[in-house]
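This part of the workshop introduces the protein records we will be handling. An example says more than a description, so a record of this kind follows:
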Amino acid sequence: MSSTDADRFAAEFVEYAIAKLGENCLKIRACAENLSEEQIWERTSGDENAVGNLLLHLQGNIRQWIGTGVAGLPDVRDRPAEFSAHQSNSELELITFLESTVEEMCDCLTLLDKATLIECIEVQKRRLSRIRAIFHVVEHFSYHTGQIVYITKNLTLRNNAEASPISFDQTTFKADFA
C-alpha cells in the first residue's frame, strides 16, 4: 500500500468512526426523549443497568479510550460511579453531557495525525494501537446503543401498548456530526 493509499485509508477510518458515533448518539437521543425521568433510571432487576447508567458509562468509556488513550488527555474516569448512580442527573443533562463529550472526542480524532494510528498506547492497562482503541470505542458504543434501544422499546411498550415505534432521523445526524 502506498503512503497515499495509507493516508486515504486512515482518513476514511477516522471519518467513518466519527459518523458511527454520531449515528449512535442520534439513536440514544431518540430513546432518551421517549423515556420519562423515572424510566431513564429504572432497573427491572438489581443486576441490570438503567439507561442513565449506560449513558454515564458511554461518556466515561469514550473519554478514557479516545481522550486519554488516543489524544493524551488526563484520565478523570470514575467507572464505579457510572454504574452506582441512581437518579443523579436528568435526561437532558445526561444526553447533553454525552453528546458534548462525543463531539469533543470526535474533534480529537479529526485533529489526530493519521500517521500515528498504528502507534501503541495504553488504556486500562492494555497496550494496543490507536486504531484498535478507536475501533473498540465504536464497537462498544454500538453495543450499548443497542441495549438502550432494547430497554427503551421494552419500557415504552410495557407502559403504553399503543406507543409508536422509535424512529431515527438520519438527516439530523448528518447535519450535527458529519
In short: The longest strand covers residues 120-123.
